[in-house]
Structures are given as structure tokens and as C-alpha cells.
């Protein structure tokens, strides 16, 4: 009996010791999460969900905003100096790929990307770097189909409609999204000559508003418009531009991407606007899961999948709460 008690105590101490060691290791684990536009709701949400993973596992999350390449390289050095073991990044410029990989290696940091995939000097993805992104073309196609469905519901004739392609072509993801939408529009019979490019200087609402206003003023004879772009902010900018030139809500169909707070606030307005929908891409997976994957890589030597693509779901004014709940956002 005494031997049995001794064995039980020893076993309990061993479990307690292992738990204590694991807890101590987690506390010593430090992971960076670098984003290109920290003021945007999407990235705020990614950080929020990454924080959840940090609290669950007990590691330290270091959140850094890096709006340009210089700030990004400095941030990586800073993480190295802090004793971090790895980081997740959405880079301000995908062409910085080789430099980011080299800087991470120089600081002995594991590297994973989110949202925007790094490319090499040849413009091809750096496939050795684990990445969680979005099936940009498929999401763009969902936007295009949502617009087609809205035009049919309103009884619009496509020949009378103008399309604002709010573009940010220096970002491959942006190109894939808008071209996905355009492919569906053209397949449905929308004329290519009725699609007008509105290049934005930045990926925010103000830049999109300025770009779309130029298009609307140049084609004042067109009274019915559709709009699509990289994200919700791009489309909201086009909607605000249409309002500024006197186009009513029933003369605009804008479908965004992201399901950001800005889109939800638009749905909450007492009167419907020309922003009719958004294809929600859940920041929960992009924040929580990437942070968790990085922790498992550091703590358990379990490298993340080289490529994970997430999908989206169309949400409108009358069902956005249900869609968000189904995606685990609410």
C-alpha cells in the first residue's frame, strides 16, 4: 500500500511538473504580429483574435504596425532584440519578400504571412513561407454574382449601367478580387466598355472616394452604377462619391469584401444606402489561427501548412448578423 501511495504521489508530481514546465515555456514564448495598416478595422480584428490565442496558450503577443518597408524591417529587428521566436506579418509590399525572409533568418525568427502572400524577384509566390490567405478570385466572383443578382432584382438593363472598378493594382490580391468580379459580370453580358477604372492611391475610403468621383464626373450621363474593389472601404468610397454627385441609393449597387466594422455600420443606418452587401472574410481565422499556428510551430515544432485559403460568405443588410454568427465572429 505504501509503495502504491508513493507511486501515485510520484505520478502526480510528474504531471504537475510537466504542466508547470509547459506553462513556464508558454510564458517565455513571444510572437510578433505585424500589420501594414493598424488603423483599419480588419487588422484591428486580426489583433483581437490573435490576443485570444495568446491568452489561451499563455504566450506574449507583440502587435506592431508597419506602414512601409523601412518600418517593417525595423520591426523585425525589434522582435529579434526582444527575444521573440517568430512572427506573423501582413506586409505593406509583397515584393519585399526576399528581404523579409532574410531579415527573419538573421534574427532567428520563424516567419508566417497572412492576407498578402510574399513574392520573389520573379513575381512568383514564395511557397516555402507558410501563408494563410483568401481565395481572392473566388471571393471576387462572389461579389460579381451578388451584383448581377441585385441588377436582376431591380430590373436594370446592363447597357444602361456603368461599373466602377476601384483598383489598387500594385497588390496582386486586389487584382485577383476585381478581376474575379469582372469575369462574372462579363459572363452575364456586361459590356467591357462600361467598366471604368478608378485607381486609388491608398486602400482606404477617402482614396476610393476621390478615385470614384473622377469616374462619375467623367460619365455624368450614366445614372445607374455598380461598384466593386479590394475591400469594403473601396466600395464605401465609391458609394460616398455617388451620393456626392446626386445619385440616389436605388441608383447604386456596391458590394464590398471583408465584413469590416465600416460595412456593418453601413447596414445599421436607418435608411439603406447604395452599399448593398459585403462578402465577409472572417478575421478570426486570420488572427486567431495564424497566432496559434505560430505558437505550435515554436512550442511543438509543428510547422503550419504551406498554404491555407479561407472562403467568404455574402452578407446583406437583412442577414449580416446571422452570417457573422455562422462564421464565428459574433
From TrEMBL:
Localization (cell): Periplasm
CDD domains: PBP1_arabinose_binding
Key word Signal present: yes
Keywords tagged on the record: Periplasm, Signal, Sugar transport, Transport
Predominant localisation class: periplasm
Domain Periplasmic binding protein/LacI sugar binding: from-to ranges: 29-309
InterPro entries named among the record's database cross-references: AraF, Bact_Solute-Bind_Prot2, Peripla_BP/Lac1_sug-bd_dom, Peripla_BP_I
Keyword Transport (UniProt): yes
Signal peptide span: 1-26
UniProt record similarity statement: Belongs to the bacterial solute-binding protein 2 family.
Protein name as catalogued: L-arabinose-binding periplasmic protein
Species for this entry: Mesorhizobium humile
Higher taxonomy: Bacteria, Pseudomonadati, Pseudomonadota, Alphaproteobacteria, Hyphomicrobiales
Amino acid at each position: 500500500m505504501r509503495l502504491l501511495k508513493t507511486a501515485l504521489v510520484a505520478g502526480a508530481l510528474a504531471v504537475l511538473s510537466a504542466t508547470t514546465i509547459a506553462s513556464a515555456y508558454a510564458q517565455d514564448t513571444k510572437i510578433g504580429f505585424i500589420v501594414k495598416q493598424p488603423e483599419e478595422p480588419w487588422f484591428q480584428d486580426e489583433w483581437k483574435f490573435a490576443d485570444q490565442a495568446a491568452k489561451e496558450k499563455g504566450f506574449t503577443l507583440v502587435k506592431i504596425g508597419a506602414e512601409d518597408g523601412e518600418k517593417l524591417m525595423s520591426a523585425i529587428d525589434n522582435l529579434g532584440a526582444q527575444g521573440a521566436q517568430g512572427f506573423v506579418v501582413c506586409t505593406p509590399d509583397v515584393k519585399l519578400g526576399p528581404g523579409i525572409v532574410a531579415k527573419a533568418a538573421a534574427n532567428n525568427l520563424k516567419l508566417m504571412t497572412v492576407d498578402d502572400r510574399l513574392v520573389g524577384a520573379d513575381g512568383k509566390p514564395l511557397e516555402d513561407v507558410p501563408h494563410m490567405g483568401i481565395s481572392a478570385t473566388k471571393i471576387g466572383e462572389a461579389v460579381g454574382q451578388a451584383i448581377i443578382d441585385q441588377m436582376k432584382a431591380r430590373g436594370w438593363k446592363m447597357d444602361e449601367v456603368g461599373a466602377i472598378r476601384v483598383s489598387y493594382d500594385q497588390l496582386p490580391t486586389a487584382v485577383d478580387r476585381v478581376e474575379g468580379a469582372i469575369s462574372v459580370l462579363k459572363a452575364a453580358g456586361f459590356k467591357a466598355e462600361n467598366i471604368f477604372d478608378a485607381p486609388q492611391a491608398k486602400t482606404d475610403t477617402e482614396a476610393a472616394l476621390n478615385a470614384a468621383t473622377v469616374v462619375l464626373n467623367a460619365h455624368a450621363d450614366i445614372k445607374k452604377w455598380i461598384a466593386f474593389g479590394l475591400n469594403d472601404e473601396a466600395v464605401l468610397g465609391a458609394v460616398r462619391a455617388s451620393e456626392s454627385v446626386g445619385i440616389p441609393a436605388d441608383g447604386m449597387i456596391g458590394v464590398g469584401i471583408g465584413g469590416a466594422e465600416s460595412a456593418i455600420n453601413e447596414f445599421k443606418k436607418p435608411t439603406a444606402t447604395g452599399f448593398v452587401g459585403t462578402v465577409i472574410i472572417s478575421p478570426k481565422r486570420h488572427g486567431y489561427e495564424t497566432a496559434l499556428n505560430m505558437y505550435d510551430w515554436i512550442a511543438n515544432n509543428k510547422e503550419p501548412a504551406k498554404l491555407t485559403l479561407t472562403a467568404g460568405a455574402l452578407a446583406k443588410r437583412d442577414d449580416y448578423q446571422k452570417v457573422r454568427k455562422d462564421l464565428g465572429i459574433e
